[in-house]
Amino acid sequence: MTPAPIPPDDPERIAALRCLLLLDTPPEERFDTLVAFAVREFDVPMVLVSLVDGERQWFKARAGVAVCETPRDISFCGHAILSPQTLIVNDTWLDERFADNPLVTGPPHFRFYAGAPLQLPDGHRVGTLCLMDRAPRQLDRLEQLTLAALAALVVEQLASPPAAL
Amino acid sequence: MPPHAPSRQSLCLVHPDRTVRSILAFVAQELNFPPVEVFNTPQAAARFIQTHRPAALMIWTDDPPALELIERIRGAELNCPADLPLVILAPPCSASQVRQWLAFKPVRLLLTPFRIKDLIQTLEQLAQSPAVPG
After folding, report:
1. Which residues contact A76 (CB under 8 A, 6 or more apart)?
2. Residues 81..110 of B with a Cβ closer than 8 Å to A: which?
């Protein structure tokens, strides 16, 4: 397994993430709605809005995943934030970075992963909108664009304060 | 311009769900489709159609104003061709309702559940269709 690399701008990236004041906050409909949309559109069992913090990835919204965070070093999203492009792993068993990852060899048994980075207007990639499945999959071009569009909507929400009650 | 060059006239989308509107506008831009003008109500779309000439209309039809807009277009009451290419998006409905929608001669009728991907592929077909005459 390749542990999630730490990008050179990580201190600034984490500062930008923490300025959002979203870590460890309760679920919010504005994010849950987008996750539910992704579950329907892509017909996948697991979708996350994952925020990559210093030592962990924490899930602002989740479907099909029981835990609210995992260690950063075993996270797929820690890899996905290294590039502005969507990271797609069609079959984790065939990818040496992930084949022996505990999230692959044990629950929740990821076999497919697609993570679109959540890039803030200042350029920092603070997390991902990601899809997972327990079977290998492909994501065609239209689906990749749809995922990127959904990620842009998540970013829009990250940068906006919650609606007044 | 070749006779069947893709039109750059805008495509008009009416849908109540902001997520659907945003995704279609984003993907259309990424794929260099004609611009997609999005509206959350048929009334707003009618105002746009009066002053612009969209190449096609894709409309969610679960309320009377949507039906009224389609009837006005087909009745040549708006400033657009009466045969404006039309895509009807509808919730599950009866056979008689389907017949009613088909009577408007849409280029496509999509009943839920459909995926965003279906809408994008439909947009792609519209973007590649010949320019609207006139």
Report:
1. A4, A87, A89, A98, A101, A103, A110, A113, A115, A130, A132
2. none
Write the single-letter amino acid at A108.
Answer: P
A148 in contact with chain B, both atoms CB, cutoff 8 A: yes
A-proximal residues of B, 26-55, CB under 8 Å: 26-27, 30-31
CA distances from B83 to A1, A95, B39, B60 (A): 59, 53, 21, 18
The answer to whether the CB atoms of B27 and A149 lie below 8 A apart is yes
- Kindly report, residue by residue over A81-91, the tens digit of the pLDDT: 999 999 999 99
Find the mean pLDDT for residues A125-148.
97
CA distance A132 to A115: 9
Taking the complete model, does pTM exceed 0.95, yes or no? Answer: no
- Residues of chain B found within 8 Å of residue A37, distances taken between Cβ atoms: 19
